[in-house]
Amino acid sequence: MATLRGDNFTKAEKFTPATESILGRGLWDGKLRVCVDSWQAAEQGDDNLTDGDIIKMGRIPEGATFLFAILSSDDLGSDTQRLHVGYGANANEWLANEDATSAIADKFIVSASGTTMTEDANVNVRYTSGGANAAANANIELITVYTSE
Description:
elongated; mainly beta; Jelly Rolls; 2 helices; four-stranded antiparallel beta sheet
């Protein structure tokens, strides 16, 4: 039976000031940070979401590393409704075209795991519908997990 080591374990085990930059910030002995947010049309005074609307649901600081996100939503309505999750101007960076015509139950998003933010960035959920509006009681929840320090 062999004892094997992961990439970062190996780098940490052989750590010297010269190899410090090899380990990504927060990827070894880092601190997990979480943004938890929800949006409900009725509570916002809005009747519904319209095509192209963006909901800001968190912030990740410069230098932090995105690990994963979890998206949940109610059934938003018609057959063309989609949710996109990302940051800044790239609202479909992590998840694009997630079908929201039926409830989304804890969609685990890891497609960009390991992405390091080059600037402070808002975490956005963008709604697209091909012209249809979401149900008036639409509820969307997003949990974003990243590491820093």
